[in-house]
Amino acid sequence: MTSTDIYLNDLGIICAVGTSVDEVRNNLVSSNTKMTYSRAFHQGEPLPIGIVDLELPKIPLTHNKWQSRNNQMALFAFQQIVKTVDEMVSLYGRARVGVVIGTSTSGIDGTERAISCKMASGEMPDTFDYGQQEMGAPAQFIAEVAKLTGPAYGISTACSSGAKALASAKRLIEAGICDAVIAGGVDTMCKLTVQGFSALQAVSNELCAPFSADRKGINIGEGAALFVVSKKQATIALLGYGESSDAHHISAPEPKGVGAIQCMRESLKMAELSPEQIAYINLHGTATQLNDQMESTAVNTVFGEHVLCSSTKPFTGHTLGAAGAIEAGICYSVLGGSGKPSYIPVQINTPTLDPSLAKINLASNEKCESVDVSDIKYVLSNSFAFGGNNISLVLGRNK
């Protein structure tokens, strides 16, 4: 690899299936899902939700603008990478380290609570600040905490936000604007998303079953994943990305997968790889009827029916603006980014592929056991958002 390659130097992650890279890896390897049945964010029967059920760190800044659960989640992930961030500051200076974080809800859960308080008392609580729900708030917050003076901004393109933050980090470094970037995504649970997706009849009352004939829809989740991205050589590289905006429909994907095909091919082209070199694909795999139909068609078109693939959303839930970053984090661990052996996540809760879908090679225990993990050098991660806002990332092992 050349000096122009962009590397993933560290990762902090938190989601329903784990609160560190190693814990996420261990639960994926053991097929241990951590979904919680809850009615906290909607009325009706309990739904499986990928909620993070632990005490999050307190916000160290006093201004009300920063006091959101979303920022607490981002802070939890940041605390896992703070030593590497300090190293980057020492190497390059505070002005040369940027922050790009994707989100789709930001602090909306806090706004919901504030509105409920106003309905009960007639006044908004003193602790509320509208800035809590600004889409740029998580990036600005992390920049304030880390005392960074490089570019700091948010990306909000629905479910592709976290992955697009990584592509932005790569561009900032290649353009010479930054030498290192904290990049990823964060989204926390709120009623707006659970009830909004329910209104679209896209939410399953059971553990989601991607690509299964009896799939019923998504499970909503929450979490954060923040990478340290830089030009300093590391084990895992961000080799390529491909982006497209097919703008077919506000909530339904283009059925032939035109945009998805384009971004997968563009990511391979940037990475200078052929489809045959990809060992594993982390599918967007929402378990909705239309997304799975489109994605199976697109993957079959680009890769045929042989590359192993799976959707990890039965483990994490669909974490919306954080999904692309969390799933890139899973790919990072697949490649051995934490120093542990490589592996391939099994597709759980889908015993057989829906026969009406284009053929793809869903990873089973038997298939994964036959894989020589030393051969896992390149992986691809898909994120497909509302409005046809698509991105694919290619990660590779620097060996």
TrEMBL record:
This is Beta-ketoacyl-[acyl-carrier-protein] synthase II. Residues 1-397 form the Ketosynthase family 3 (KS3) domain. Belongs to the thiolase-like superfamily. Beta-ketoacyl-ACP synthases family. The lineage of its organism: Bacteria, Pseudomonadati, Pseudomonadota, Gammaproteobacteria, Alteromonadales. GO terms for cellular component: cytosol. PANTHER family: BETA-KETOACYL SYNTHASE, POLYKETIDE SYNTHASE-RELATED. InterPro entries: Beta-ketoacyl_synthase, Ketoacyl_synth_AS, Ketoacyl_synth_C, Ketoacyl_synth_N, PKS_Beta-ketoAc_synthase_dom, Thiolase-like. GO terms for biological process: fatty acid biosynthetic process. GO terms for molecular function: 3-oxoacyl-[acyl-carrier-protein] synthase activity. Keywords: Transferase. Pathway: Lipid metabolism; fatty acid biosynthesis. It comes from Agaribacter marinus. Signal peptide: none annotated. The keyword Transferase applies.
